[in-house]
User: Fold PLP-dependent transferase from Rhizophagus irregularis.
Amino acid sequence: HGTNPASAAVAGFETITVKSDENGLVDLEDLRRVVGNDTAALMLTNPNTLGLFEENILEISEIIHSVGGKVYYDGANLNAVMSKARPGDMGFDCVHLNLHKTFTGPHGGGGPGSGPVGVKADLIPFLPKPVLVKLEDGTFHFDYNRPQSIGRVKPYYGNFGINVRAYTYIRTMGPEGLRQVTEYAVLNANYMMRRLEPYFDLPFNRHCKHEFVLSGRRQKKLG
Assistant:
């Protein structure tokens, strides 16, 4: 997820990597060490890139919130928790979804792709404008009167058709269908992990979510 720190750096922020502990999770002591009054935000996937669920996510969020920072959720691994858990309940303030990974959008070959962003109430005033709002009479209009908005974004509303496609998929699957997708993703990943275990080293030998990491140290010895 190298584009996340890259985007922060382009925006003028200093990016700091937080270490993982012996269990492959965020090292809480290292997090406390680097967090301070100048902390703007923490970016996190959950499950993380190792395919492990961050068991201390509520404490992680509290550490960041205690210094006035925000917690940002990269939805790259949402397949593992769809219809099972909600990022907002974990303490995340801002969420972006990868529609190509989770909701059937195309990926590669030029896309088109889409990464919609959702925020909690206190961040709504800063969303790009115009914002589409629904009036009391049931009609919709664009609201340009957003004095705290970050302004317009270059691609307007992006590849809107992919949002429609994702919405259609979500409505077609429904809560139970999405829950089944999550359960199959986790089941398949654990099945594959155990089938490959005799041939590779497992850095973290525990149940994974939708993906897992193998080590090639054994193969490296053979060149």
In short: The chain has one domain: 3-114+158-220.
